[in-house]
Amino acid sequence: MAADTSPTIVWLRDDLRVADNPALNAAVERGGDVVVLDVLDDESDEVRPIGSASRWWLHHSLTALAADLDALGAGLTLRRGPAEKVVMAVVDEVGAGAVHWNRRYGKAREVDARLKTALKDRDIEAVSHAANLLFEPWTVQTGSGGPYGVFTPFWKACLARDEPRAPLEAPASIPGRAVEGDDLDSWELLPTAPDWAGGMRDEWTPGSTGGRERLEQLAEERLADYHRRDEPGFEVTSQLSPHLRFGEVSPYQVWHRLRDGLSGLAAKNHAKFLSELGWREFSYHLLFHNPDLATVNYRREFDAYPWNDPHDAGLARWQKGRTGIPIVDAGMRQLWHIGWMHNRVRMITASFLTKNLQIDWRVGEEWFWDTLVDADEASNAASWQWVAGSGADAAPYFRVFNPVLQAQKFDPRNEYVARWVPEEGTDDYPEPMVDLKESRQAALDGYEAVKAAKNRA
Ligand SMILES: Cc1cc2nc3c(=O)[nH]c(=O)nc-3n(C[C@H](O)[C@H](O)[C@H](O)COP(=O)(O)OP(=O)(O)OC[C@H]3O[C@@H](n4cnc5c(N)ncnc54)[C@H](O)[C@@H]3O)c2cc1C
């Protein structure tokens, strides 16, 4: 029988890289031409349209990826529309015999499952690969065979398994097949009126090259100071999150880059850093088993919480960084300016919204979804629920962050606040929009309804 040299489609999603991309390597190994396809899907019911800051990132990430693919001999085909329809249309256009992709783990996997069935019904090979998580969510199970709901035993179980595989080299060349597609500019991913992305341009280099630079900086410099990761004024965290979110860098590449050659404090901080990657894995574990994580309370008794009306409670002041609480305002302005916020401050701002203003965590999750360049369907939803108290392994609801004490502890020299709220202490800066003590008590009173619902259940 003659070898099948029909073209293969590689359908890219959250894996915008040429190295350590199992779907791409498998397509090249199969033989025949390779069509590399990216689809902007704002239409499928199961796919959450990405937010404004992520759109900015995506534009630049695709530009970088297209250059990397060109250098290997393949182009990047862009199409817009519901993914199942679009992929099938490209299959027909080129007479593809196979479609490969790397897995995703939220609701959108229903799209992938339907497409796989439809392709197989037509005798077209449809293969999904593990690429974006170190441990496939369904393979990590409790002793009784269920999903984990607590981080520590989850991560212990992961670490007890075989070490994650080594990252794959990029193909030496790709026999690319040109297919007509959209012009990236026609997707209108960049802000124009106004162009609010200046701070992001200064801060970030979207794409694998920028991601690799962050990884090197982590290994060579930042990891040695990582024990100070909770201090927002001191830049020691990796800032790899948007690169991981868009798959420009894979967790396998991160894991293996940090595996050998560390010494001193960097070696000491290594396990802590890996456990942060573990939180990413845990968030995906939760999302896989709870596809509605961004909209439904993980702990259902929180359905009874009497949230305030967001507009009456001052949502706009929180969004604009005008609450009158300096560390909260600093975080919200950092977010607006560079599309990223330090983890400690994400916790403080989220706690302020859900507890001191008693605004539903879903409202905050949506704002972060729109404004973060690393907005991630698993980590964002899981973290918001964690802070609100409704999530898995969440801090007890009554542990309300006091933002003033948090700032004293983690920004003792006021460096972070001074950078983002230079007018603090002048007449231009507003008074606190709520009394912290009273609003904390109001939050705890609201929690009584949750406790009552739990007791009834
Ligand atoms: C309310 C709230 C919302 C959040 N939303 C997101 C989000 O949309 N996307 C996102 O990637 N992270 C989110 N996080 C988690 C965390 O704040 C960021 O991952 C981290 O700040 C990214 O900075 P870094 O890359 O320098 O982190 P590092 O400390 O260098 O950590 C390395 C990597 O580990 C992962 N990671 C670290 N901490 C966490 C965590 N707590 N949960 C899950 N993964 C983690 C990230 O991929 C990160 O890049 C959120 C946290 C909170 C409290």
UniProtKB/TrEMBL annotation:
InterPro entries: Crypto/Photolyase_FAD-like_sf (IPR036134), Crypto/Photolyase_N_sf (IPR036155), Cryptochr/Photolyase_FAD-bd (IPR005101), Cryptochrome/DNA_photolyase_1 (IPR002081), DNA_photolyase_1_CS_C (IPR018394), DNA_photolyase_N (IPR006050), Rossmann-like_a/b/a_fold (IPR014729)
UniProt KW keywords: Chromophore, FAD, Flavoprotein, Lyase
Positions in coiled-coil regions: none
Species name: Microcella alkaliphila
Textual note on the cofactor: Binds 1 FAD per subunit.
Annotated Photolyase/cryptochrome alpha/beta domain residues: 6-134
Official protein name in the record: Deoxyribodipyrimidine photo-lyase type I
SUPFAM superfamilies from the UniProt entry: Cryptochrome/photolyase FAD-binding domain, Cryptochrome/photolyase, N-terminal domain
Cofactor: FAD
Site for Electron transfer via tryptophanyl radical, residues: 307, 361, 384
Binding site for FAD: 226, 237-241, 273, 374-376
Pfam families assigned: DNA_photolyase (PF00875), FAD_binding_7 (PF03441)
UniProt record similarity statement: Belongs to the DNA photolyase family.
Source organism superkingdom: Bacteria
MF terms (GO), sorted A to Z: deoxyribodipyrimidine photo-lyase activity; DNA binding; FAD binding
A GO BP annotation: response to stress
